[in-house]
Amino acid sequence: MKRFKIAAILSLALLLMSTPVLAYTHHKSKIRWMEYSQEAFERAKRENKPIYMLITAVWCFWCQVFEEKTLEKTEVANYLNENFVNIFVDYDKRKDIASKYPPTGLPFTVIFAPDGTELVSVPGYIEKDKFLENLRKTVAYVKELKPQEKRKEEKVVEARGLIYPKVDDLETLVTSIKNIIRDNYDKVYGGFGFREKVPYADTLDFLMDLYNEEGKELWLEMVTNTLDHIGGLKKGQDREGGKRPESSYILALYREREGEDWLEKVGRLQREDRLYGLYDPVEGGFFRYALLRDWSMPHFEKMLRENGEIIKAYLRAYTITGRVEYRDLALGGLRYVLNKLYDREGFFYGSQVADEVYYHLGPEERKKVKPPIVDRTGYTLPNAKMVMTLIEAWKVLKEERYRKIAEKVLDFWKDKMLTNWGVLSYYDPQKGKGELNGLLSDNAWMALAYLKAYEAFKEDKYLEVARRILDFLITNLYDTSNGGFFERRSTSREFYREEELFSPAKPYVANGVAAYALILAYRFTGNDGYEYKARETIGAFLKEYPDASQPYMERAAMALLKIENKKERR
Q1: 361 CB contacts (<8 Å, ≥6 apart)?
Q2: Domain that residue 461 falls in
Q3: How many helices (H) and strands (E) does the chain have?
Q4: pTM of the entire structure?
């Protein structure tokens, strides 16, 4: 329940950041931005200037407002250039940095002293005059600071000992996640939680595992009720009055965004032309989440990751139920992703940005305007998820093209993104290369994608790549004293301060994915070392609160229980 609540708070914080017209192109900014790096912090120390750090996202509406109304004003830009070292953090490319700050909304401002000590962090849009006033106070405060010798903090991981979970431990873990999911299920509208609605498609995927194992109708009902609402097959009961504006009015609202009352008019449009569900019936694909409990008033960014998760859920539900509506929604999602987010070089783009007016236009009206822009960066984790969705599509829909595209993406990652230090985190098409190594999450998900490809296609090359990635994780990120995997051990010095190259944190979900991948690797190879590492990883998290939004730790526990049952039968 706690993890569902945290995610709900995050989605609420994102409410006012999901309607951009254009992405913030910081390379063309009046502000002299630097990327997050050791060099930036060294410059601040050398010049005795505080650091202004902005965390922002391509799809974030209030980031756009902050840029236009505050940051790009000449007075503000000049002050920042003269008195600060300015660091720009792209939320999608640098989630490793963004994750260090509370999920309370973008844009996010962080101020550091010249020695790199964090002074203040503030979420959200800040009006120009107030922003300038606070910048001046920061500069005055820094001038009064007396130099202090900064002690180098050693990151020591306390040895507690490895825990080898027993059958009872595994059963308790699985039972606890079932209870959390059941307690948070919305019986009326489907989904989880009782305010804004996030799809949590990985949870639906897990529920279908439970249904296949146990045959319990409750698990399937949770899935179908949720998917019916996500796909707009059921309409909410909280419909407000109001007449849909004329098409000419909506087109004018799309084109004329400079008026002071534009945001107010957009809000009125959401209420008067109430949309239900996350599926876009005109262009296909799924939006990220909905503001209200009945899945109405969606917020319109289309993310590769979420589309991959939702499409896979519909494919699996179609297999179980035979309902053609689920097949059709999956096909609509696949058409969107392949038409809008696929690069024939062999990778998928990250997202298409939101626009709260564009998606109220009908099919003919949309032909008259430019669609929202696409972030053409290829992120590893979403690409791994989309590969697994394409494998599912190949199995369910019996169309060879889905297999061919999945194989092309896997070949792209093997040829261009796999290094001796694991897979790189994202591919920059402008530079024509991948960047940022040593992160647990990206490596765990991509290892799982290769293992699923091996399971489906029976080609040894996929198992070989998966083993390379897993062996990297075990050698470089595994905690041999306590079990589990550390968040990061990177050699990408241009992306971190020296003390940040290693992160001793152990993220729950990424460890769950790694544990599940290790169990699959054990099943395919018979290598006991993989099984032991999976068990020890689960053992390291037995006292943690389960994450019901992506229950891979629990899926790994279920797989281990099957192994135990087979051993007993022998």
Answers
A1: 247, 250, 251, 254, 282, 369
A2: 161-190+379-570
A3: 21, 19
A4: 0.90
